[in-house]
Write a structure and sequence with these properties.
alpha+beta; disordered N terminus; FAD/NAD(P)-binding domain; 23% strand; seven-stranded mixed β-sheet
Length: 465
C-alpha cells in the first residue's frame, strides 16, 4: 500500500452483471460515507473514499489513551434501542454479540445539586419543581408520542411548544437552560421539531421499569467504522486518509475531476457527505450564487470536548444535564458509569461537552488552556474534586458538529442531487426531522446507495432491451 491509500484491486468485477459499473468518489469517511462506500463496492462499483483526517469514523472516531485502555471515542457516543439501521449493519458485519444495552443513570444539575431523572418515579420526586409542574414536565413525553406528523410543529420554535405544553416555570427551570447551553445565541431560533424528536427518541429507549437503556459496542464505535472500512477494501474499494478534497470540477460531457491533497483523479459520480458549506467551498469556482447561498444557509455550531481520565469516579451519574448558566459545558458525561472502568485500565472517563460558534476564542485555545478553563467550574460542581485526580486529559474539536435546526427547516435542506449531474450531497444536515447520530448517518448513506444501485440496474435493463 502506497502512502495513505488503503485498498485493493480484488473484487473489481463483482456485481458487473447487476448493473453498469461506475467510478464513485465519496468525500468523508464518517458513518455516512462508509455506509455508502460499502454498499456501492459490494454492488461492483469502483469506490474511492477521500478523508481529510487520519482515521475513519468521523465524529465517532476513536483514539488510543494507552495504559491498557480500550480505544475511546473523541466525542461521547451511545445507541438507543430504537436505532434499527445501525443494528442491522452490525448484524451483517457479525458484531451483534459485541453490543450491550445497559440502564443509564441520568440527572439534572440544578441549584448546586445533581437531581436524578432516570425513571418516571424520579420525575415525580423532582424537587426543582412543584408537584403540578412535575406532572406538566411528564406530559411533554406523552405529547411527543402523540405527534403523528412533525410538519405540524415546523412553524413553532422549541420555546413556544415547550411553554404551551409544560408552562412557563417548567420552561425556565428545565428547558431554557438546556437549549441555551446547546445552542447559545441561536436557542430561540431552534424548531419545535428538534426538541420533539429528542423527547420521542429518549422516550422510546426505555425498559419495562421506565428507565432508559442505551447501547455500546465493546471496543468503541470506531470498531464498527473499521469493520466497514475493511469490508470496503475487501470488495475492491479504496480509502485515502489524510486526503482532503480541495476542488471539484465537472468534466466536459460527463464525470468529475477531484483535486485532493493526495493528487487528482476522475470519477463518474461524486458524493459529498460533509456539511453543505464545505461543498460550497469546493464548487465555488463554477457554481452560481444562488446554489452557493443555499449550501451556505444552514448554520452550524462547533463542539469542544474535553476528555478526562481520572483515578477515581467523579459521580454515580452517566449523563448529567446542566441547567446552571454559569457552568460553561452543556453536559458532564461520565462514560465509566455506563461502561466498566476495567475496560480503560481502571481509569474513570469523563467527557465535558461545549457547543459554541467556531469564532469563539475558546475553540482555538491550546489544550492546556481549555483544561485550565474547565477545572474551577468542575471543582465548583464537585467540591471534592481535585486536579490530582486527573491522570491524563485530551481535547478534541469539531468545526461542523451541530446544524442549527430552525423553524421550517425542511425548506432550507439542500436536495441530494447536486447542482450538476453526477454530484450528490448526503449529510447530517439532511436527516431531518431526526437529529444527527450514527444510526441516521448509516440509514442515510444506505438509502442513497440503494437508490443509485437501483437506477443503474434500470438503466442497464433499458440498454439491454
Amino acid at each position: 500500500m502506497a502512502g495513505n491509500e488503503v485498498g485493493s484491486e480484488m473484487g473489481s468485477e463483482a456485481g458487473s452483471e447487476a448493473g453498469m459499473k461506475r467510478r464513485y468518489a465519496i468525500i468523508g469517511a464518517g458513518f455516512t460515507g462508509l455506509a455508502l462506500a460499502r454498499d456501492l463496492a459490494r454492488a461492483g462499483h469502483q469506490v474511492t473514499v477521500h478523508e481529510s483526517g487520519r482515521f475513519v469514523g468521523g465524529l465517532a472516531g476513536a483514539f488510543d489513551p494507552g495504559g491498557g485502555s480500550a480505544p475511546l471515542e473523541r466525542f461521547y457516543h451511545h445507541w438507543f434501542t430504537s436505532d434499527r439501521a445501525v443494528m442491522a449493519l452490525i448484524e451483517e458485519l457479525g458484531l451483534a454479540g459485541e453490543v450491550r444495552f445497559r440502564p443509564s443513570r441520568t440527572a439534572m444539575y440544578f441549584a448546586n445539586r445533581a437531581l436524578r431523572l432516570s425513571t418516571p418515579l424520579d420525575l415525580l420526586r423532582f424537587p426543582a419543581l412543584p408537584f403540578t409542574d412535575r406532572l406538566r414536565l411528564g406530559r411533554l413525553a406523552l405529547a411527543a408520542r402523540r405527534v403523528r406528523d412533525w410538519r405540524a410543529l415546523e412553524g413553532l420554535t422549541a420555546s413556544q411548544w415547550l411553554r404551551d405544553i409544560g408552562g412557563e416555570r417548567v420552561y425556565r427551570v428545565v428547558w431554557e437552560p438546556l437549549l441555551k447551553g446547546k445552542f447559545g445565541a441561536a436557542a430561540e431560533d431552534v424548531s419545535a421539531v428538534w426538541i420533539w424528536n429528542k423527547l420521542k427518541l429518549r422516550g422510546g429507549s426505555r425498559g419495562r421499569g421506565g428507565g432508559e437503556r442505551l447501547g455500546y459496542l465493546r471496543g468503541s464505535f470506531a470498531r464498527l467504522a473499521e469493520a466497514m472500512a475493511e469490508d470496503i477494501r475487501r470488495h475492491g474499494g479504496s480509502i485515502r486518509l489524510g486526503s482532503p478534497v480541495r476542488r471539484l470540477s465537472p468534466l466536459a460531457g460527463a464525470g468529475w475531476r477531484i483535486e485532493a491533497a493526495t493528487g487528482s483523479s476522475e470519477a463518474d459520480r461524486v458524493i459529498a457527505t460533509h456539511a453543505p458549506p464545505l461543498l460550497a467551498a469546493l464548487i465555488g469556482h463554477w457554481a452560481d450564487a444562488d446554489i452557493l447561498a443555499r449550501l451556505e444557509r444552514i448554520r452550524y455550531l462547533a463542539n469542544l470536548c474535553l476528555v478526562l481520565e481520572l483515578d477515581r469516579p467523579l459521580s454515580e451519574t452517566y449523563w448529567l444535564n446542566v441547567t446552571d448558566p454559569a457552568f460553561p459545558f452543556v453536559g458532564v458525561i461520565e462514560h465509566t458509569n455506563f461502561q466498566p472502568a476495567s475496560s480503560y485500565g481502571g481509569r474513570h472517563v469523563v467527557y465535558l461537552s461545549r457547543y459554541l460558534p467556531a469564532e469563539e476564542a475558546l475553540f482555538g485555545e491550546p489544550d492546556d488552556a481549555v483544561f485550565d478553563f474547565a477545572m474551577p467550574h468542575l471543582q465548583r460542581m464537585f467540591p471534592a474534586f481535585e486536579r490530582g485526580w486527573v491522570r491524563q486529559y485530551h481535547v478534541w474539536r469539531a468545526r461542523w458538529a451541530q446544524p442549527v435546526v430552525e423553524r421550517h427547516y425542511s425548506r432550507l435542506i439542500p436536495p441530494e442531487e447536486g447542482p450538476a449531474p453526477g454530484l450528490y450531497l448526503c449529510s447530517m444536515a439532511q436527516i431531518y426531522p431526526e437529529d444527527r447520530g450514527t444510526n441516521y448517518a448509516i440509514r442515510q448513506g444506505r438509502r442513497l446507495a440503494a437508490r443509485l444501485i437501483a437506477e443503474d440496474r434500470q438503466a442497464t435493463g433499458r440498454i439491454a432491451g
